[in-house]
């Protein structure tokens, strides 16, 4: 382990901002823990259905403030995409090549997930699993993919939006909500915010990549300003306090994104910028950096398979011992949350198994001549490619010949 940590630290370019990788790891972990803590799979009368912890225990809504971290992911995504595109263009890499590699990194693991679940769905139907249960499971697996589609679209539009001021998409979100909620407009208008809402933190990330957002003042303005506006919208504007969707609620802040979700995301981006200094100091320790680097190396696998890991544990336990607290029961009391916390290490172990089985799809790709260009550097593949890839990962193109 010491040798692996040393190799990862030694292979990391000195100019790499490790705090950016830490923010992305934090965003992924927020999504995973949010789903694992809030979503219950209730076994009832031979079927399995979902139930939300926040519906039965609304006083736990602050959990959604800590664990709904998508804005931070789009902030980091915008920063990394702009820097990667500019670096690739400076080295003569075409937009088509650059985009092809980034899209492959996103959707190659998705293809593996879809194949596995297509076969699993067919097997479950053949074994007599009801359509209600199958629909519940497939929805849990497939619903997070909307995030990847939006992120892919924004990545493809990077050359167009790299210099777009975040206030422009924020104004779009404001007017869409004004028409929807203030003037009684059609509900479908809200889906405009699916792109505009996440474009706000993405454009902030682009400004960060261009050298903007310097100084702690910007972070404090975003944190305090976004937090104050969000509080006003919740207290006086009729927006729900939960920053995730809650079954039965008249309005969801996330599906599609509302103005409250976007202003809350601005507050999160401000907090992320303020944390850069402390994160850089902490990540100077090789062991801490190695953990962050390894998580980022499997970020897509963790994101795509964490729901499957939870469902595998739930199904296995139900078959072996019947309904268990915190796993198959309605999340109606504090005891459920305590029991669910105890199950989290089991979910993590199942996710590690998924990572071992499907992690190769995240990095597999064509090879030519044993050379891969990563961030403009030629890396010769060999036994140390794994350690070097952890530290030197990013957008890359295969250089033929």
Overview of the molecule:
This protein is mainly α. It has one domain. The chain contains 19 helices and five strands. The strands form two sheets. Strands 4-3-5 form a three-stranded antiparallel β-sheet. A hairpin with a 2-residue loop joins strand 1 and strand 2. Helix 6 packs antiparallel against helix 8. The longest helix has 32 residues. The C terminus is likely disordered.
Mean residue pLDDT: 87
The helix/strand order is HHEEHHHHHHHHHHHHHHHHEEHE
**What share of the residues lie within helices?**
55-70%
Q: How many runs of DSSP E, i.e. beta strands?
A: 5
Report low-confidence residues grouped into runs of 5 or more. Answer: 366-401
Give the strand line-up of the largest sheet. 4-3-5
Number of domains: 1
> How many alpha or pi helices?
19
What composes the largest sheet?
A: 3 strands, antiparallel
Please give the radius of gyration in angstroms: 22 Å
| Span of the ends, CA to CA | 36 Å
What class, by secondary structure content?
mainly alpha
Shape: globular
Q: How much strand? A: 5-15%
Summarize the SSE layout with pairings.
Blueprint: H1 2-11, H2 18-38, E1 39-44, E2 47-52, H3 53-56, H4 62-67, H5 70-90, H6 95-126, H7 131-142, H8 145-156, H9 158-161, H10 167-182, H11 193-209, H12 216-236, H13 259-274, H14 276-282, H15 286-297, H16 299-321, H17 334-358, H18 360-363, E3 371-374, E4 377-380, H19 385-392, E5 396-397
Antiparallel strand pairs: 1-2, 3-4, 3-5
Helix pairs in contact: 1-15, 1-19, 2-5, 2-14, 2-15, 2-16, 5-11, 5-13, 6-7, 6-8, 6-16, 10-11, 11-13, 12-13, 16-17
């Amino acid at each position: 382990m010491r040798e692996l940590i040393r190799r990862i630290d030694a292979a990391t370019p000195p100019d790499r901002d490790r705090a950016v990788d830490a923010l992305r790891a934090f965003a992924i972990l927020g999504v995973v823990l949010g789903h694992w803590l809030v979503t219950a799979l209730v076994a009832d009368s031979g079927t399995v259905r979902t139930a939300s912890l926040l519906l039965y225990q609304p006083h736990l809504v602050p959990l959604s403030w800590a664990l709904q971290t998508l804005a931070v992911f789009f902030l980091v995504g915008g920063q990394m995409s702009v820097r990667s595109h500019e670096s690739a263009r400076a080295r003569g890499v075409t937009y088509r090549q650059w985009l092809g590699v980034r899209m492959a990194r996103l959707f190659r693991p998705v293809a593996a997930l879809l194949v596995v679940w297509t076969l699993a769905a067919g097997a479950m139907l053949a074994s007599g699993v009801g359509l209600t249960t199958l629909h519940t499971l497939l929805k849990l697996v497939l619903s997070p993919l909307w995030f990847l589609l939006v992120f892919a679209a924004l990545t493809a539009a990077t050359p167009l939006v790299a210099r777009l001021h975040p206030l422009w998409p924020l104004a779009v979100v404001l007017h869409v909500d004004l028409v929807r909620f203030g003037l009684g407009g059609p509900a479908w208008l809200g889906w405009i915010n699916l792109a505009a809402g996440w474009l706000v933190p993405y454009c902030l990330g682009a400004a960060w990549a261009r050298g903007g957002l310097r100084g702690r003042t910007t972070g404090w303005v975003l944190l305090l300003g976004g937090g104050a506006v969000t509080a006003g919208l919740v207290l006086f504007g009729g927006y729900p306090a939960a920053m995730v969707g809650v079954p039965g609620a008249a309005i969801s802040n996330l599906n599609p994104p509302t103005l409250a979700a976007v202003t809350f995301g601005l507050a999160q981006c401000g907090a992320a910028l303020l944390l850069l200094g402390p994160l850089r100091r902490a990540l100077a320790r090789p062991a801490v950096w190695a953990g962050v680097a390894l998580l980022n190396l499997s970020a897509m696998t963790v994101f795509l398979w964490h729901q499957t890991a939870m469902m595998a544990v739930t199904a296995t336990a139900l078959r072996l011992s019947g309904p268990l607290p915190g796993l198959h029961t309605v999340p109606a009391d504090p005891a459920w949350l305590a029991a669910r916390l105890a199950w989290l290490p089991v979910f993590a172990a199942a996710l590690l198994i998924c990572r071992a089985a499907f992690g190769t799809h995240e990095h597999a790709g064509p090879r030519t001549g044993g050379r891969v260009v990563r961030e403009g550097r030629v890396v010769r593949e060999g036994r140390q490619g794994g350690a070097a890839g952890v530290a030197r990962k990013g957008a890359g193109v295969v250089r033929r010949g």
